[in-house]
């Protein structure tokens, strides 16, 4: 049978030949006749199907194959597939030359054969078989794990998923969570080829090789292990979240290929350079805190960053900060609170001024002095500025949207960390949106500017030169007040706080001359109370607290001698008596069975017998005893 095109062509050839014969061939006038020539149409050529190699698919995985066929003397008019042999595949999807299906759940390996058929415009059909091997996945109990702890974790997790859980149960959004299981080897995890989420934090892992095959992984948590080599992660290009903090990593070049990352944590490692940082255009969170990084080369093009943590690095140059309006949170800590960095050059903060979208900023460092660049960060809502060399904070008066502010020097037992050089906080009076303020270890004497911050709910004033309660008197929205001056409070003006009726947490040094807790009657909501004082402090009567429902109560110094008033405090959870030299009888504490913790440090005058009796009575309570006690 011929196609219409081929028939027309053949008839045309015959017609032309007959016409030429009738006309004598178109030559001279001879009378001899020329034989008639009739050409035979060419034979149709069958479609050619490109060779189809044997295929393999795992059970319960999607399979797709597209065949290729051509017709050299016409066109392909029809293509189709039909199953020829093997277990029946019910859910086939055939779209001309494309075959797709979901491999069935099987107990053992199976082979199926599909036949592909291609028909040309002459109706000639060609066929070719495609062999597909369907491999059965191992049951979880059949996977060979080198580490029994990993095996136990996987089996336990599978059991929680139900009776039919198997190696595919962790596909999709189901995570394998094996934190803190003392796992040292990952051999066997490579069988879970389609798993997307694994948490292996807080283990003893050193070798990541078994993870190299898990190319479907989207999130991987390996924090707090003993990892040095990241090479096995190179091909895990679908990773979006990767936590590698608290390991022994010094080279990150192996993960440079991970360009889909949204979150990367490399804190607490041994990095000295970040030039090989993955250049993910979508990276939103990056922590390189607590390393030995001195420059930021390698992150300047991460324009999608929203949260950047740089603390505890010897950074002296922040020129390469990514200039991106998207950056919402930045932590820049050039040194830590245990050492001074006198040899480091001062950091120029001017590159920060370009991060106009910042809403949270932490700056800590011994080599930070000029903060004028902060004036342009008008979107800031939270600022922590711990830098003892700073003496001028006038730039802060532009940050009208600030809600939380923490300024000062490190609060540390090491006396070699100086106080912040700031001696005036007048500019803070402009920050009327503040609800949370901490001022620690400065040279400020006059705290009157904060009296205008009437929205404050939390105020911490620690180790400054002010010794008066007066600046806090009209902060009527306060729920937390912590006030520890450098020296003793000799002026008895605590009664000025009578308007602070919303206080829930009140920690302070009690005025030396005050011998009453009467002011607390105006503060009925207090549940967390600390009263400090020296051995010369006159306060001795605490009985007015008997009906309070405190959860935390601490006393240091004072003339506290009787603790009977505590017997009615059924809500009390933590109790601390330090340096309470007038207290000799603690037997009343034995009835406080709800207590979780008692701290009795620096009370070496207490008898060992009483301490032992207390421990026996409160066997489930953590009791922190003094270093020594009096033997009977």
Automatic annotation (TrEMBL):
Key words, A-Z: Leucine-rich repeat, Repeat
Superkingdom per UniProt: Bacteria
SMART domains from the UniProt entry: LRR_SD22, LRR_TYP
Recorded coiled-coil stretches: none
Family matches, as InterPro entries: Leu-rich_rpt, Leu-rich_rpt_4, Leu-rich_rpt_typical-subtyp, LRR_dom_sf, SDS22/Internalin_LRR
PROSITE patterns the record matches: LRR, PROKAR_LIPOPROTEIN
Descriptive protein name: Leucine-rich repeat domain-containing protein
Organism: Thalassotalea marina
Organism taxonomic ancestry: Bacteria, Pseudomonadati, Pseudomonadota, Gammaproteobacteria, Alteromonadales
């Amino acid at each position: 049978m011929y196609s219409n095109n081929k028939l027309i062509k053949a008839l045309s050839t015959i017609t032309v030949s007959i016409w030429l014969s009738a006309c004598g061939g178109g030559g001279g006038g001879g009378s001899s006749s020329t034989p008639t020539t009739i050409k035979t149409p060419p034979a149709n050529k069958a479609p050619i199907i490109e060779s189809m190699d044997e295929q393999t698919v795992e059970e319960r995985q999607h399979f797709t194959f597209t065949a290729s066929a051509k017709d050299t003397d016409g066109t392909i008019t029809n293509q189709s597939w039909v199953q020829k042999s093997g277990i029946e595949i019910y859910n086939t999807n055939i779209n001309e030359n494309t075959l797709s299906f979901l491999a069935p759940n099987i107990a053992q390996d199976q082979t199926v054969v599909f036949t592909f058929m291609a028909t040309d415009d002459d109706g000639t059909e060609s066929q070719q078989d495609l062999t597909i091997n369907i491999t059965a996945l191992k049951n979880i109990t059949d996977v060979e794990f080198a580490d029994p702890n990993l095996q136990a974790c996987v089996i336990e997790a599978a059991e929680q998923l139900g009776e039919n859980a198997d190696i595919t149960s962790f596909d999709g959004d189901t995570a394998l969570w094996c934190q803190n299981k003392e796992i040292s080897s990952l051999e066997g995890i490579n069988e879970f080829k389609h798993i997307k989420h694994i948490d292996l934090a807080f283990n003893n892992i050193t070798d990541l090789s078994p993870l190299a095959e898990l190319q479907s992984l989207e999130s991987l948590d390996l924090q707090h292990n003993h990892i040095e080599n990241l090479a096995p992660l190179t091909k895990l290009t679908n990773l979006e979240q990767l936590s590698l903090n608290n390991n022994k990593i010094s080279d990150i070049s192996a993960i440079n290929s991970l360009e889909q990352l949204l979150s990367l944590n490399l804190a607490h490692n041994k990095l000295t350079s970040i030039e090989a940082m993955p250049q993910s255009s979508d990276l939103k969170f990056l922590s390189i805190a607590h390393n030995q990084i001195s420059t930021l080369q390698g992150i300047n093009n991460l324009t999608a960053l929203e949260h950047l943590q740089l603390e505890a690095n010897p950074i002296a140059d922040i020129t390469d900060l990514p200039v991106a309006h998207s950056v919402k949170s930045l932590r820049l800590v050039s040194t830590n609170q245990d050492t001074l960095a006198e040899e480091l050059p001062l950091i120029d903060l001017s590159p920060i001024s370009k991060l106009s979208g910042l809403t949270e900023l932490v700056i800590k460092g011994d080599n930070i002095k000029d903060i004028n660049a902060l004036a342009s960060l008008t979107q800031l809502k939270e600022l922590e500025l711990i830098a003892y060399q700073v003496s001028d904070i006038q730039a802060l008066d532009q940050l009208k949207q600030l809600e939380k502010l923490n300024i000062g020097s490190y609060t540390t037992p090491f006396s070699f960390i100086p106080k912040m050089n700031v001696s005036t906080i007048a500019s803070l009076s402009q920050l009327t949106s503040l609800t949370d303020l901490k001022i620690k270890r400065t040279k400020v004497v006059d705290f009157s500017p904060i009296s205008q911050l009437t929205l404050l709910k939390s105020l911490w004033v620690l180790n400054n030169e002010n010794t008066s309660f007066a600046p806090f008197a009209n902060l009527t929205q306060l729920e937390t007040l912590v006030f520890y001056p450098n020296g003793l409070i000799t002026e008895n003006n605590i009664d000025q706080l009578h308007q602070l009726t919303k206080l829930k947490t009140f920690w302070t040094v009690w005025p030396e001359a005050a011998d009453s807790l009467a002011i607390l009657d105006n503060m009925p909501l207090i549940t967390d109370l600390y009263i400090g004082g020296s051995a010369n402090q006159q306060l001795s009567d605490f009985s007015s607290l008997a009906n309070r429902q405190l959860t935390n109560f601490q006393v240091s110094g004072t003339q506290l001698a009787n603790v009977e008033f505590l017997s009615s405090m059924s809500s009390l959870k933590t109790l601390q008596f330090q340096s309470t030299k007038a207290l000799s009888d603690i037997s009343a504490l034995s009835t406080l069975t709800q207590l979780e913790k008692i701290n009795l440090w620096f009370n070496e005058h207490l008898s060992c017998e009483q301490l032992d009796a207390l421990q026996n009575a409160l066997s489930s309570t953590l009791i922190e005893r003094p270093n020594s006690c009096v033997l009977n």
